[in-house]
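Q: Here's a chain of 236 amino acids. Please give me its 3D structure as tokens.
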Amino acid sequence: MAFILIIETSTEVCSVSLSKDGNLVDLIESGEGQNHARLTSVFAETLLKRNNINPGELNAVAVSKGPGSYTGLRIGASTAKGICYAAQIPLIAVGTLEAMAKHVSLNHEKFGIPFEGKTLFCPMIDARRMEVYSMLIGENGNILKPISAEIIDESFLESDLRSNTVVFFGNGSAKCQNVIQSPNAIFLSNINASAQYMTELVWEAYNNKHFEDVAYFEPFYLKDFVATVSKKNMLG
């Protein structure tokens, strides 16, 4: 039996969940804005208390590693590290965009995504103006376009949209809907970064012992984004 506390603070949503053997047990989250410094530890403590679990009974703590809000990611990482240090348990980190894409790809019927044809998934995190952090993922989880900072215009993913259905979601997708006009584009609303969406990837990482160095782990801020450059791969 493995209990994992999961923390997601990369966007305006402050979200903490508890999983048991890869299944969601409980969740607390708030989308009221950047109150992560006040809420994250409180949510974690409340979640453990109402499920009668001591920090020492946790098998690991997982945190969203970004990209996203610089301040939010730092708060999430420091909270997760603090619990790991105190309880002497492993730290797991999973990508914010990958976690959202995994959840959506596993729930075609729930989100009304067609089963026929090839479907690609494009999670988006709002940056500013027409800028987003995004990536493109295939149905089997393969990364077709790595995480990058993009200024969205009508040519974004133009070639991919010609022959594939592309599903856009995340808090950065709504502002792109009027720009990306392809009939093969599907926009999902109300899909934001959430600790509950991290469950599958966290369990996979735990079973594969993909743990972070608690002392040296740093979130992926994607902070070198240059606003005047379009379609630049920030990992290159």
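Q: Can you summarize the key feature?
A: The chain has a mean pLDDT of 91.
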